[in-house]
Queue: 2 jobs
Job 1
Amino acid sequence: MDVIKMPRIIIDYVKCIAEEEKICIELCPAAVFQCEESGKPKVVNANKCNMCGVCQANCPVQAIMIST
């Protein structure tokens, strides 16, 4: 039996500066993130994440971590 692992996307909201730069929201090819009222990103489509790492690699403050 094959096991499919869903990605786990962790956002460190203490480090996050998305109010100023919404890089993760803008660059994600799978539209995994949505902007909250606070301006911070929220994971809304984790099941669509293809684990490309674009958000993690481009976050200027390393506030995103993707794992399985």
Job 2
Amino acid sequence: MKTLIQKLPLDHASSFVARTYRTPYFETPWHQHIEIELVLMTESYGTAFIGDALIEYHTDDVYLLGENLPHWFRKADTHPTGASMVVHFTKDFWGQAFLELPEMDAIRTLLDFSVQGLRLQGELRRQIAGQLRSIEQQRGFAQLATLLDCLHQISQSSDYVLINQSPVLTYSTTDQAQIHTVMEYTMAHFQQKIRLEDVATLTHRSVSAFCQYFRKSTKKSYVQFLTEIRLAHACKLLTTTNLPVTQVCFESGFHNWANFSKHFKHQLGLPPSQYRRQHSSPQTL
């Protein structure tokens, strides 16, 4: 997918950047950068598009995003603000010779496949989250040691999932603005009927040309992308509200029950009502 290639500023006294991003909107354009990103979501929840994967993110999630892995985060409208603690560093920020030491084999391997994106889980997530909460206040060697320890812990664990099953292609900035416009339009209108003609017009392409471009860029059709967004919203409504399942169907942008039920079962592996029983908290049952 065409992306904004972002250049991140480095302080003259630091070899990497560790800082908190906080905004009422917490929305980033679809972008990529050569720096690897270790990120803790400290506030809010919403939708993330990482590589070719559309996922929901939540407070306290921790991600390791490799160099030039395109990503985009969008906060849910219901949450007043959004924030994340982010560490940006290049693959060889400590020097190529240090990276090639035999003691660095595991970390070097970790950084190689971080281009697929990692989502930490369980105790590993809790440990790394705790260290990231303190790293911004540290300085000098203490900060460097914390980052190195985080990478060491991740490299010695299997308590994570790969967000993409294979490395993701990266692209130039040529069509970044168009793709970002398509994403924003989709997020703003997915609960309504969306015509391919209207989306294609946003990119100044015919419907046929747009569909070919979108599939080539994202490895999925636009209709599949739209369906995934609608299903993600349906899952959120099923687990956080007491809305009738039929109302969830229409609130999520589906226009008939049969279509919703078919897509939901195909994507999630079980009917909506069963999904609600298995994933809802007691107060929403």
